[in-house]
Amino acid sequence: MNTSLYNSRRRRNTIAVVASIGATGIGLAWLALILGVLFWKGFSGLSLNVFTEMTPPPGSDGGLLNAIIGSLIVTVLAVAIGTPIGILAGTYMAEYGRHDKLTSVVRFINDILLSAPSIVIGLFIYEVMVRPMGHFSGIAGAIALAVIVIPVVVRTTEDMLVLVPNTLREAAASIGLPRSLMIQKIAYRAARSGIITGILLAVARVSGETAPLLFTALNHQFLSTVPFSLLGHDFSVINLNAPTPSLPVVIFQFALSPYADWQKLAWTGALIITLSVLVLSISARALAGTRKST
Q1: Can you tell me the distance from the alpha carbon of 189 to that of 194, in angstroms, rounded to the nearest whole number?
Q2: Which position among 62, 97, 205, 274 has the lowest Cβ density within 10 Å, counted as fewest Cβ atoms?
């Protein structure tokens, strides 16, 4: 055995292991530092008022109720728009056009859209929706976020459906089951946890997006409502055809302000978003782990 060659390879292996562990430690240290500062500055402002009061003027007490509700509505609407489109596109790519040239083109475009800066998407929606409408709106914000949701769901749906064994498809075809029913009853069920994981990751991705909302939904200190009558009773609903508050935009504006109370609310809002994304990420990992174990 060549001892010098063995020692050389052993030294290289040791250097690679040490460098990998060091890089991992640097990454984890930055993550721990960010989370530590976030908890230190944001936890002190966490109270019931944050969830029950509107964003205040400078020097007054208040909370983030309008921003939290606005974020929830815009995010849910964006996922409701983007998820069906993403699942159907991913289904076509995996089940109907797996070997088509069109699928290769769609996959290439989807990858570009997946890595596109969110501010570019926000600027695009601003030009095609906000300028023609003449005003900012929550609907435009939801569509901007939906454009971000679609490529994530497309990629996840295609990957999960491709992993479904072809023997299941062949068994369904052997008993005369149409392809559409095979996809609904067999392929979707086999890939269900993976597709749900992709949707949760898409929600986590858009929950903290600020740039697209600055160009589309902007912000509002309260929740704009529209009155209407039903069966002789007067009601009011949140008006999404008007500037709509959201947590990321409030954090951006409050953090840049010179007022200490606004900056404190910004840290608290950042903590709320971080904890929400953390819960979604853990849920997605848990679902993915469940899928692997089954």
Answers
A1: 10
A2: 97
Q: Which residues pair with 15 in a beta bridge?
A: none
Q: How far apart are CA 65 and CA 222, in angstroms?
A: 9
pLDDT of residue 292: 58
Q: CA angle, 240 as apex, 238 and 246 as ends, to 5°?
A: 90
| 196-230 pLDDT, tens digit each | 989 998 998 898 899 999 999 998 888 888 887 77
Phi and psi at residue 210, in whole multiples of 5°?
-110, -45
Separation between Cα atoms, residue 131 and residue 139, nearest integer Å: 13
The DSSP annotation for 10-42 comes to HHHHHHHHHHHHHHHHHHHHHHHHHHHHHHHHH
Query: Which residues contact residue 244 at a Cβ distance below 8 angstroms, ignoring those fewer than 6 apart?
Result: 70, 73, 74, 136, 137, 138, 141, 217, 218, 219, 220, 223, 224, 238
Collapsed DSSP state (helix, strand, coil) of residue 230: strand
Q: What's the pTM value of the predicted model, to 2 decimals?
A: 0.89
Taking only the tens place, the pLDDT of each residue in 148-193 is 999 999 999 999 999 999 998 889 888 888 999 999 999 999 999 8
CA 207 – CA 74 distance, rounded (Å) = 9
Q: Rounded to whole angstroms, how far apart are CA atoms 183 and 181?
A: 5
